[in-house]
Task: inverse folding
Protein backbone atom coordinates (compact mmCIF):
# COMPACT_ATOMS: atom_id res chain seq x y z
CA UNK A 1 0.00 0.00 0.00
CA UNK A 2 1.31 3.47 -0.89
CA UNK A 3 1.28 6.39 1.53
CA UNK A 4 -1.40 8.22 -0.42
CA UNK A 5 -3.49 5.05 -0.57
CA UNK A 6 -3.37 4.88 3.23
CA UNK A 7 -4.52 8.50 3.42
CA UNK A 8 -7.26 7.85 0.88
CA UNK A 9 -8.44 4.81 2.85
CA UNK A 10 -8.70 6.89 6.02
CA UNK A 11 -10.57 9.61 4.15
CA UNK A 12 -13.04 7.06 2.80
CA UNK A 13 -13.69 6.06 6.42
CA UNK A 14 -14.43 9.70 7.30
CA UNK A 15 -11.33 10.25 9.41
CA UNK A 16 -7.73 11.42 9.36
CA UNK A 17 -4.77 9.07 9.06
CA UNK A 18 -2.55 8.45 12.09
CA UNK A 19 1.16 8.75 11.28
CA UNK A 20 3.60 7.49 13.93
CA UNK A 21 7.34 8.16 14.28
CA UNK A 22 10.18 6.43 16.13
CA UNK A 23 13.93 6.44 15.49
CA UNK A 24 15.50 3.21 14.30
CA UNK A 25 17.72 1.61 16.93
CA UNK A 26 15.81 3.00 19.90
CA UNK A 27 15.95 1.51 22.45
CA UNK A 28 17.73 -1.16 20.35
CA UNK A 29 17.34 -2.16 16.72
CA UNK A 30 15.19 -5.17 17.61
CA UNK A 31 13.38 -3.11 20.25
CA UNK A 32 12.53 -0.40 17.73
CA UNK A 33 11.16 -3.00 15.31
CA UNK A 34 8.99 -4.47 18.06
CA UNK A 35 7.82 -1.00 19.09
CA UNK A 36 6.94 0.05 15.55
CA UNK A 37 5.03 -3.18 14.94
CA UNK A 38 3.11 -2.50 18.15
CA UNK A 39 2.17 0.94 16.83
CA UNK A 40 0.98 -0.60 13.56
CA UNK A 41 -1.05 -3.23 15.37
CA UNK A 42 -2.62 -0.58 17.63
CA UNK A 43 -3.76 1.71 14.83
CA UNK A 44 -1.04 3.65 12.98
CA UNK A 45 -1.84 4.01 9.28
CA UNK A 46 1.61 5.21 8.20
CA UNK A 47 5.00 4.80 9.89
CA UNK A 48 7.95 7.19 9.87
CA UNK A 49 11.30 5.66 10.84
CA UNK A 50 13.91 8.17 11.93
CA UNK A 51 17.48 7.77 10.74
CA UNK A 52 19.62 8.68 13.79
CA UNK A 53 21.99 11.56 13.12
CA UNK A 54 24.71 13.18 15.21
CA UNK A 55 23.43 16.74 14.72
CA UNK A 56 19.62 16.63 15.08
CA UNK A 57 19.18 20.40 14.81
CA UNK A 58 15.40 20.38 14.40
CA UNK A 59 14.63 17.77 17.06
CA UNK A 60 13.57 18.60 20.59
CA UNK A 61 15.14 17.07 23.72
CA UNK A 62 12.91 13.99 23.75
CA UNK A 63 13.85 12.81 20.27
CA UNK A 64 17.46 13.91 20.81
CA UNK A 65 17.66 11.60 23.85
CA UNK A 66 16.31 8.68 21.84
CA UNK A 67 18.61 9.35 18.89
CA UNK A 68 21.59 9.57 21.25
CA UNK A 69 20.72 6.17 22.72
CA UNK A 70 20.46 4.69 19.24
CA UNK A 71 23.82 6.11 18.18
CA UNK A 72 25.53 4.95 21.38
CA UNK A 73 24.05 1.52 20.67
CA UNK A 74 25.85 1.50 17.33
CA UNK A 75 22.91 1.82 14.92
CA UNK A 76 23.93 2.03 11.25
CA UNK A 77 22.15 2.84 8.00
CA UNK A 78 21.92 -0.90 7.31
CA UNK A 79 19.93 -1.23 10.55
CA UNK A 80 17.55 1.46 9.35
CA UNK A 81 16.88 -0.51 6.16
CA UNK A 82 16.41 -3.69 8.21
CA UNK A 83 13.87 -1.85 10.34
CA UNK A 84 12.09 -0.54 7.25
CA UNK A 85 11.91 -4.04 5.80
CA UNK A 86 10.42 -5.50 8.99
CA UNK A 87 7.80 -2.77 9.36
CA UNK A 88 6.90 -2.56 5.67
CA UNK A 89 6.24 -6.32 5.75
CA UNK A 90 3.18 -5.57 7.91
CA UNK A 91 1.60 -3.90 4.89
CA UNK A 92 1.68 -0.40 6.35
CA UNK A 93 3.42 2.29 4.25
CA UNK A 94 6.83 3.02 5.79
CA UNK A 95 8.82 6.19 5.26
CA UNK A 96 12.28 7.18 6.45
CA UNK A 97 12.60 10.61 8.03
CA UNK A 98 16.16 11.85 7.75
CA UNK A 99 18.41 14.83 7.59
CA UNK A 100 20.03 15.09 4.20
CA UNK A 101 23.70 14.63 5.09
CA UNK A 102 23.49 10.86 5.81
CA UNK A 103 21.74 10.27 2.48
CA UNK A 104 24.27 12.36 0.60
CA UNK A 105 27.15 10.58 2.32
CA UNK A 106 25.67 7.14 1.58
CA UNK A 107 25.04 8.04 -2.05
CA UNK A 108 21.66 9.36 -3.14
CA UNK A 109 20.90 6.83 -5.87
CA UNK A 110 22.25 3.98 -3.76
CA UNK A 111 20.12 5.08 -0.80
CA UNK A 112 16.99 5.24 -2.98
CA UNK A 113 17.73 1.81 -4.43
CA UNK A 114 18.28 0.20 -1.02
CA UNK A 115 15.23 1.91 0.46
CA UNK A 116 13.05 0.61 -2.37
CA UNK A 117 14.56 -2.86 -2.01
CA UNK A 118 13.63 -2.85 1.68
CA UNK A 119 10.01 -2.02 0.83
CA UNK A 120 10.21 1.60 1.95
CA UNK A 121 7.74 4.07 0.49
CA UNK A 122 9.98 7.14 0.41
CA UNK A 123 11.69 9.88 2.41
CA UNK A 124 10.72 12.82 4.57
CA UNK A 125 13.57 15.33 4.30
CA UNK A 126 13.10 18.25 6.74
CA UNK A 127 16.32 20.09 5.90
CA UNK A 128 16.40 19.53 2.13
CA UNK A 129 15.21 22.48 0.05
CA UNK A 130 13.74 21.98 -3.42
CA UNK A 131 16.62 23.98 -4.88
CA UNK A 132 19.10 21.44 -3.52
CA UNK A 133 16.98 18.37 -4.13
CA UNK A 134 17.79 17.59 -7.76
CA UNK A 135 19.66 14.37 -7.05
CA UNK A 136 16.86 13.10 -4.81
CA UNK A 137 14.15 14.04 -7.31
CA UNK A 138 15.95 12.01 -9.96
CA UNK A 139 16.63 9.04 -7.68
CA UNK A 140 13.08 8.97 -6.33
CA UNK A 141 11.76 8.79 -9.89
CA UNK A 142 14.18 6.01 -10.78
CA UNK A 143 13.39 3.66 -7.88
CA UNK A 144 10.27 2.30 -6.22
CA UNK A 145 6.93 1.15 -7.57
CA UNK A 146 4.59 3.16 -9.79
CA UNK A 147 5.77 6.76 -10.14
CA UNK A 148 8.66 6.07 -7.78
CA UNK A 149 9.52 6.70 -4.15
CA UNK A 150 7.51 9.26 -2.22
CA UNK A 151 9.28 12.54 -1.49
CA UNK A 152 7.83 14.53 1.38
CA UNK A 153 8.96 18.11 1.87
CA UNK A 154 7.88 20.41 4.69
CA UNK A 155 5.89 23.63 4.66
CA UNK A 156 5.83 25.88 7.73
CA UNK A 157 3.96 28.81 9.21
CA UNK A 158 6.65 31.10 7.82
CA UNK A 159 6.35 29.76 4.25
CA UNK A 160 5.04 32.19 1.66
CA UNK A 161 2.28 31.10 -0.71
CA UNK A 162 4.84 31.02 -3.52
CA UNK A 163 7.07 28.76 -1.45
CA UNK A 164 4.20 26.45 -0.54
CA UNK A 165 3.25 26.22 -4.21
CA UNK A 166 6.78 25.21 -5.18
CA UNK A 167 7.12 22.63 -2.39
CA UNK A 168 3.73 21.01 -2.93
CA UNK A 169 4.49 20.74 -6.62
CA UNK A 170 7.44 18.48 -5.85
CA UNK A 171 5.89 16.38 -3.06
CA UNK A 172 4.63 12.86 -3.59
CA UNK A 173 2.70 10.84 -1.01
CA UNK A 174 1.66 13.77 1.14
CA UNK A 175 2.71 17.26 2.19
CA UNK A 176 4.13 17.64 5.70
CA UNK A 177 2.80 20.79 7.38
CA UNK A 178 4.96 21.73 10.39
CA UNK A 179 2.62 23.77 12.55
CA UNK A 180 5.17 24.91 15.12
CA UNK A 181 8.16 27.16 14.77
CA UNK A 182 11.33 25.81 16.37
CA UNK A 183 12.27 22.29 17.44
CA UNK A 184 9.97 19.30 17.76
CA UNK A 185 8.22 18.15 20.90
CA UNK A 186 4.81 17.47 22.40
CA UNK A 187 2.83 20.59 23.35
CA UNK A 188 -0.12 21.22 25.61
CA UNK A 189 -2.13 22.90 22.85
CA UNK A 190 -2.34 22.84 19.07
CA UNK A 191 -0.82 25.94 17.48
CA UNK A 192 -3.53 28.41 16.48
CA UNK A 193 -1.90 28.92 13.09
CA UNK A 194 -2.20 25.26 12.15
CA UNK A 195 -5.64 25.33 10.47
CA UNK A 196 -4.62 28.32 8.36
CA UNK A 197 -1.38 26.61 7.28
CA UNK A 198 -3.33 23.53 6.16
CA UNK A 199 -5.84 25.76 4.36
CA UNK A 200 -3.07 27.64 2.52
CA UNK A 201 -1.35 24.38 1.60
CA UNK A 202 -4.55 22.86 0.25
CA UNK A 203 -5.13 25.97 -1.86
CA UNK A 204 -1.78 25.45 -3.57
CA UNK A 205 -2.47 21.72 -4.01
CA UNK A 206 -5.83 22.51 -5.59
CA UNK A 207 -4.13 25.02 -7.87
CA UNK A 208 -1.75 22.32 -9.07
CA UNK A 209 -4.51 19.71 -9.29
CA UNK A 210 -2.42 17.03 -7.54
CA UNK A 211 -4.94 16.02 -4.82
CA UNK A 212 -2.16 15.41 -2.27
CA UNK A 213 -3.19 14.93 1.37
CA UNK A 214 -1.77 17.19 4.08
CA UNK A 215 -0.36 15.69 7.26
CA UNK A 216 0.13 17.94 10.27
CA UNK A 217 2.89 17.81 12.91
CA UNK A 218 4.43 18.69 15.32
CA UNK A 219 3.45 18.45 18.96
CA UNK A 220 0.35 16.22 19.21
CA UNK A 221 0.53 14.30 22.47
CA UNK A 222 -2.88 12.83 23.30
CA UNK A 223 -6.19 11.74 21.87
CA UNK A 224 -7.92 15.08 22.40
CA UNK A 225 -5.26 16.92 20.41
CA UNK A 226 -5.38 14.24 17.72
CA UNK A 227 -9.14 14.74 17.43
CA UNK A 228 -8.65 18.51 17.18
CA UNK A 229 -6.10 18.21 14.37
CA UNK A 230 -8.16 15.53 12.58
CA UNK A 231 -10.96 18.04 12.14
CA UNK A 232 -8.94 20.04 9.60
CA UNK A 233 -5.93 17.95 8.48
CA UNK A 234 -5.77 14.75 6.46
CA UNK A 235 -3.15 13.20 8.73
CA UNK A 236 -2.08 13.56 12.36
CA UNK A 237 1.67 13.09 12.81
CA UNK A 238 2.94 12.04 16.24
CA UNK A 239 6.56 11.55 17.27
CA UNK A 240 7.76 12.86 20.61
CA UNK A 241 4.81 11.46 22.55
CA UNK A 242 5.61 7.94 21.32
CA UNK A 243 9.30 8.35 22.11
CA UNK A 244 8.49 9.63 25.60
CA UNK A 245 6.51 6.48 26.41
CA UNK A 246 9.61 4.39 25.75
CA UNK A 247 12.03 6.79 27.45
CA UNK A 248 9.99 6.87 30.64
CA UNK A 249 9.45 3.11 30.83
CA UNK A 250 11.62 1.02 33.17
CA UNK A 251 11.94 -1.73 30.55
CA UNK A 252 10.91 -2.53 26.99
CA UNK A 253 7.89 -4.60 27.97
CA UNK A 254 6.46 -1.73 30.01
CA UNK A 255 7.31 0.66 27.21
CA UNK A 256 5.44 -1.43 24.66
CA UNK A 257 2.39 -1.53 26.93
CA UNK A 258 2.45 2.26 27.21
CA UNK A 259 3.06 2.63 23.49
CA UNK A 260 0.06 0.46 22.65
CA UNK A 261 -2.18 2.42 25.00
CA UNK A 262 -1.11 5.76 23.53
CA UNK A 263 -1.52 4.53 19.95
CA UNK A 264 -5.01 3.27 20.70
CA UNK A 265 -5.89 6.62 22.31
CA UNK A 266 -4.60 8.55 19.30
CA UNK A 267 -6.30 6.17 16.85
CA UNK A 268 -9.58 6.77 18.67
CA UNK A 269 -8.90 10.50 18.51
CA UNK A 270 -8.53 10.61 14.72
CA UNK A 271 -11.81 8.68 14.51
CA UNK A 272 -13.75 11.22 16.56
CA UNK A 273 -16.69 12.47 14.45
CA UNK A 274 -15.76 15.74 12.78
Result:
Amino acid sequence: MSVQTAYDKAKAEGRAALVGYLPAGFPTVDGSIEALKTMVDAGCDVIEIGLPYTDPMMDGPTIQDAVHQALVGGVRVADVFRTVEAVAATGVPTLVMTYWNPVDHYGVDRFARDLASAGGSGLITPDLTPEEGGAWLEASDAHGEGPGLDRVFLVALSSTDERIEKITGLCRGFVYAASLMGVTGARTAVDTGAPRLVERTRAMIDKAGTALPVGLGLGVGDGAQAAEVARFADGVIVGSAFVRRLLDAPDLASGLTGLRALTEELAAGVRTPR
User: Anything to note?
Assistant: Confidence is low (pLDDT under 50) at residues 181-188. Residues 3-266 form a domain with the TIM Barrel fold (CATH 3.20.20.70). The longest strand covers residues 17-23.
